[in-house]
Fold this protein.
Amino acid sequence: MIIRKKAAPKLFAAAVLTATSIIANYSFAGAAREEGRLLTATEVLDDVQGMPDQRLPDTLLAHAYGIAVIPDVTKIAFFFGGRHGNGVLTVRDTLNSPWSNPVFIALTGGSWGLQAGAQSSDIILVFTTKGGIEGITGGKLTLGADASVAAGPVGRQGSAAIDVSLAEIYSYARTRGLFGGIAVDGSVIAIDKSANADLYGKKGVTATEIFSGQAPAAPETAQRFLARLSQVTHTSARLSPAPQAEVPAATARAPAAPAAPAAEAPRTYPLENQSPQ
């Protein structure tokens, strides 16, 4: 087929518009998917803390520097076993600080032995040391190798019996309505960069930017998750869960208001390799 020269620019423009529409729809779908994960993670916190005899011990939560909620972790096994799920991780600088903006993570693990079947679990990880958080060098952390991990106790008696110094991370799982400690040694936690880019609407956004509040604003679903987590851990909620990193030029020309004292100094977390690729 012969394409006339006059028609070529129109065809090119149409192709550009189509490609732009596809990219925009894909980004919107990605953001909606991540918001759904935040809603599900919030529901997991609600359900678990609504079980008095199986809830997370208050003593453990009071010593948590980071909490990861990973809903619907699927485990499939036939001699070789595999586990995978996507969730969110939030951290705090001190035990009295508000929780940071949520960062998306992926949990992947494997096992070997006589096994068969499939199941889905909601997994919660509680980080009791800063080392457990900062150990995700290069965006990955192997549980049991880079940080010690133990199946956590539950319920009222768990608060009295737990010794937070025994492990850097305590792991829990809810399967078929039952909630309790789970062994996740050998599993790998990795920063989900594409999911973070979708939710925060910024390509290449890093975990450090998100944790320190330097990423673009997150949707209301992230604020709802942080509010529920603050209730569970009995800490104050962040007044602005996801402040904008960039201020428009027009705002800069407005008269400056008296500066309010900063709630806390910006902090960094060496979770990712920031060096240029």
